[in-house]
Amino acid sequence: SVYTRKYQIVNYTWCLFSANIADSIGMISCESTMLMINTFTQFQNNRAWSGSAVYAFTVSYILFKNCNFTFGTTIRQGTIYLFSISRTEIMTCMFCHNHMTYKSGETSGIFGKDGSRLIVRKSIFKNSTGKSGGGIYVANYKQVSVVQTSFVFNSVTNYGGAIVVNNDGVARLDQVIIKNSYFYHNKGKDGGATVISETKTTVIAHCYFLKNFAENAGALLLKAIGQLELAHCKLNRNYASKGGVLSLIESHALHI
After folding, report:
1. pTM for the complete prediction?
2. 143-193: per-residue pLDDT in tens?
3. DSSP the chain
4. Mean pLDDT in residue range 112-120
5. According to the model, what pLDDT value does residue 255 have?
């Protein structure tokens, strides 16, 4: 793998990382850096303990644009592992057939913790597995935005077949926005598509939830939301053996 530390700028463009194995962290590891840019880069059939493609620690700004992450295997956490990142943007990327193998991990997709802002736009998460958050698992972020993004055929054994956003027992998240996004045939024990907990403001607008499955809350499980706006969304043919298609717990202001 490639390891960089204390650089001003790290730039990967038109690179291919394929069939590599790392005993610990991913194919690209970046620490204490101002700017990290990844464009038109492919990650295929890589395997690592955490961050099978990318492991980033205390980076100010990260951009992933037109990158593909396919058939990756993470033993514990994420195809992309983000820790203490100020701002991450993921644009027009594909995450497909990624898997997690260790029971105490969370997701095979994007794992983010103790950061400030995560923005995901025009991307696809498909056919991936994990424990919680088949596509995205985020804890202790200030702002999370998911726009024009599709989550299809993702499956987890616990919470949130597609997305999990929570505060992990720390300060409440300021804002979660999910707009113009598509959730199809995702599966989880609780929250077939999405689980969001302990946020000040959550906006879910112009989204389509179709044929998602769970034991509890077939499409959405929302807990301890300060203000929730659910607008212009379509929830169709989602299934839960209990709790209905949408479950709201300990929330305050609701606008539908």
Report:
1. 0.94
2. 999 999 999 999 999 999 999 998 866 656 789 999 999 999 999 999 999
3. -EEEES-SEEEEES-EEES-B-SSB-SEEEEEEEEEEEES-EEES-EEEE-SSEEEEEEEEEEEES-EEES-EEEEE-SEEEES-SEEEEES-EEES-EE--TT--BSSEEEES-SEEEEES-EEES-EESS-SSEEEES-SEEEEES-EEES-EESSB-SSEEEE-TTSSPEEEEEEES-EEES-EEEE-SSEEEEEEEEEEEES-EEES-EEEE-SSEEEEEEEEEEEES-EEES-EEEES-SEEEES--EEE-
4. 95
5. 67
Which residues make Cβ contacts (< 8 Å) with residue 169, sequence separation at least 6?
A: none
Residue 131 — left, alpha, or beta (φ > 0 → left; ψ -120 to 50 → alpha)?
alpha
